Amino acid sequence: MRERSNIKKRKGIQSVEIGLKVLDALVSIGRPSSLSEIAKASDLSLSQTHRYLASFVNMCYLRQDPESSLYDLHIGTLRIGLASLARLDVLEEAGRIAQAFVAATNRTALLSIWSELGPTIIRWFPGNPPVYTTLAIGSRLSLTHSATGRVFLTFQHESYVAKLLQEELQVRTEHSINIASIGKQVRRHFVADVDGTVIPGLRALAAPVFDLQGQLALVISTVASGSFAANEDQIVQQQLLGAAQEITHRIGGRWPKFK
Q: How far is the C-alpha of 24 from the C-alpha of 213, rounded, in Å?
């Protein structure tokens, strides 16, 4: 897992680490699983995996279905998960990753959530050089013309966006908007991009952050003005997508899959 790979290894108890590896394997599989499946995902022998599974069952961290013999999470893991979520500050975690993105790219970053007014900026992290714009914390962004809005348009529940989208399409008649095409592109790349559609000369990229139910939690975006090397935006796009995935991981979220 990405988060652990960035942490310096400290001397610990090997059996505890192996046991948690078994739990991680079951979580990664994502469904009730057999002994052999968990052993394979843990890269352990059947006998070793079985001993750990038996201990977790005894402690009510796992349960084994008496008919199918499949293992699954139980109340012990649920209790720990809920306690962790209760202590988690999503915006603080997202802010840390956004600041790391700014440090790595020098690009301005912002975080946006869905409000009654639509996509709304709630955090702003200036890059170097900073971007001078009328956008600020509290600004509402267009669903169709902003990169952030297009991510919300694609991944937010239709019941939330329908009314605002209808109002916006009635006002913005200067350009034809293909909503289906926008959604298809954003779903394919998990990144939306616009160039000068909100403010002339201002380019923007945006990527989604998902919660533990795979629902859109917030959007991380970056804005820039001026000229850059031809491949620079592509590199930044990958870094922004990586930041969105890291925030999703840190808040216990689930990255959705589309056919």
A: 18
Domains of the chain, CATH where assigned? 2-86 (1.10.10.10), 90-250 (3.30.450.40)
* Whole-angstrom distance, CA of residue 57 vs CA of residue 141: 50
**Contact status, residue 199 vs residue 133, Cβ threshold 8 Å:** yes
- Read off the pLDDT of each residue in 71-98 and give the average, rounded to a whole number: 82
Structure confidence by residue, pLDDT tens digits, 120-166? 999 999 999 888 888 889 899 999 889 999 999 999 988 888 888 88
**pTM recorded for the entire structure:** 0.68
| Mean of pLDDT values over 31-41 | 94
Please list, residue by residue across 166-196, b when 16 or more beta carbons sit within 10 angstroms of its beta carbon and e when fewer do: eebeeeeeeeebeeeebeeebeeebbbbbee
The pLDDT assigned to 9 comes to 64
pLDDT at position 88? 58
Q: Return the HEC string of the chain.
A: CHHHHCCCCCCCCHHHHHHHHHHHHHHHHCCCECHHHHHHHHCCCHHHHHHHHHHHHHCCCEEECCCCCCEEECHHHHHHHHHHHHCCCHHHHHHHHHHHHHHHHCCEEEEEEEECCEEEEEEEECCCCCCCCCCCCCCECCCCCCHHHHHHHHHCCHHHHHHHHHHHHHHCCCCCCCHHHHHHHHHHHCCEEEECCCCCCEEEEEEEEECCCCCEEEEEEEEEECCCCCCHHHHHHHHHHHHHHHHHHHCCCCCCCCC
